[in-house]
Amino acid sequence: VGVVVQFGGQTAIKLTKAVSDAGYNIIGTQPKDIDAAEDREVFDNVLTSLDLTRPKGETVFTAVEAIAVGEKLGYPVLVRPSYVLGGQGMEIAYNETDLVEYMNIVNSVEQEHPILIDKYVTGMEVEVDAISDGKDILIPGIMEHIERAGVHSGDSISVYPPMHISEDMTKRIIDVTKRLAVALNTKGLINIQYIIANNELYIIEVNPRSSRTVPYISKVTNLPMVQLALRCALGESVKSLGYGTGLYKKADVVAVKVPVFSSEKLPDLEISASPEMKSTGEVLGIGESYPEALLKGMIASGINLHHDSGVVISVSDNFKKEILPVAQALNDLGFKIFATVGTAKFLAEHDIYAMAVNKLVEKRNGDIVYLAKKGIIELIINTPTKGRQSSRDGFKIRRTAVDLGISCLTSVDTAMALCQALKLNKTEKDLKPFALQELK
């Protein structure tokens, strides 16, 4: 009958043209429409025709072209190759030096397609998977990411149903998803990632395929998404599937997808959260409330803290104000707060006591390695300044955490979410398990 490419991730999508050129029929969304979603210029034309907004950006091939675009858009900017898998080669450039460095890294491998440079918009990231027949859509669920835009969706904690999206914005997301699915002649699954910033809805990207959230939402809603999408790909209508159109009814639980990393298996890897995906798996926490689901997911992913243990906080100047409520919450929960000198001084100025610890390079008994080996600390919160430079102290702090098996959070948003979960004051033994078969 033909070949299905939409359930094989980005790898299968990249093979579409070769399979089609070899004479095989592509089932579902057709190659020209897949290309319209993947090709920057064609996709921009689709958005313009629909009067939809995306972060401003342009395509380039050389570092010289990139510098001109960086100046025009204003920093920070997001740099990424076309047709990328897992955000590979994707970086945020905060200045011209960063941009040139990233362009040289990306262009170390010959690029068949142009490199995309977008204005980096800070906001809440939202993800939608939809089943489409080219006329109608069925959205099993909308997911909200805990980490702000700039962290790859595979490395973000996803929450269903969303906790912080208004009813008006939900309606707008449903409407825009339908218009995009129809404009791209989608037959089967489509995945769309949005940013909500200042009550504006921006489109980050559209993937004409299933995504890693499909099994997650399928389990929680009890909707057989793959089977339904395949039926639409083969020509059936969404209305004939028997689940209605638009947004499917919410499940009566909260589900949280938490990424799992294998950083200890990869020496010298930079572990900080970024646009490039580093997680190797994920776990699903299901609870009657958001904090309960979050706590289950955190514990399952390997973050399990005792309330009388120590936490090291070391953040860049950009995040010092944002870390205050996190430090206060951890202090109130009974954790011993340690901090590198600059962070400890800032916390003290805001009436939060933290014991100052030496930097790793000083190799004294009071440094982070010493505290970790003695079992005094169980968590390190560290935001990177220049993540890829392995000579910097921050990089060494994060690698030390991994090598010693200590949880390390590199996003203030993740740390804040952890505090919400810890406020339940429950251990693994106190948490009630959910069987997927029980979900209504």
* Uncertain parts: 387-391
Find the structural class using helix and strand composition.
alpha/beta
Count the E strands.
Answer: 17
Average pLDDT score: 86
Question: Whole-number radius of gyration?
Answer: 23 Å
Report the sheet with the most strands, covering strand number, pairing sense and barrel closure.
8 strands, mixed
Q: Give the strand content.
A: 15-25%
- Envelope shape: globular
**Termini gap:** 36 Å
DSSP helical segment count:
14
In which range does the helix fraction lie? 25-40%
Folded structure, characterized:
With 440 residues, the chain is α/β, with parallel strands linked by helices. The protein has helices spanning 9-21, 31-38, 40-50, 63-73, 96-106, 167-183, 214-221, 225-233, 290-300, 320-332, 341-349, 368-373, 393-403, 412-422; strands at residues 57-60, 77-81, 91-93, 115-119, 124-132, 137-145, 158-160, 188-197, 200-207, 246-247, 254-260, 281-287, 310-314, 336-340, 355-357, 377-382, 407-409. Strands 5, 6, 7, 8, 9, 10, 11 and 12 form an eight-stranded mixed sheet that branches. Helix 4 (63-73) runs antiparallel to helix 5 (96-106) and helix 10 (320-332) runs parallel beside helix 14 (412-422).
Topology, element by element:
Layout: H1 9-21, H2 31-38, H3 40-50, E1 57-60, H4 63-73, E2 77-81, E3 91-93, H5 96-106, E4 115-119, E5 124-132, E6 137-145, E7 158-160, H6 167-183, E8 188-197, E9 200-207, H7 214-221, H8 225-233, E10 246-247, E11 254-260, E12 281-287, H9 290-300, E13 310-314, H10 320-332, E14 336-340, H11 341-349, E15 355-357, H12 368-373, E16 377-382, H13 393-403, E17 407-409, H14 412-422
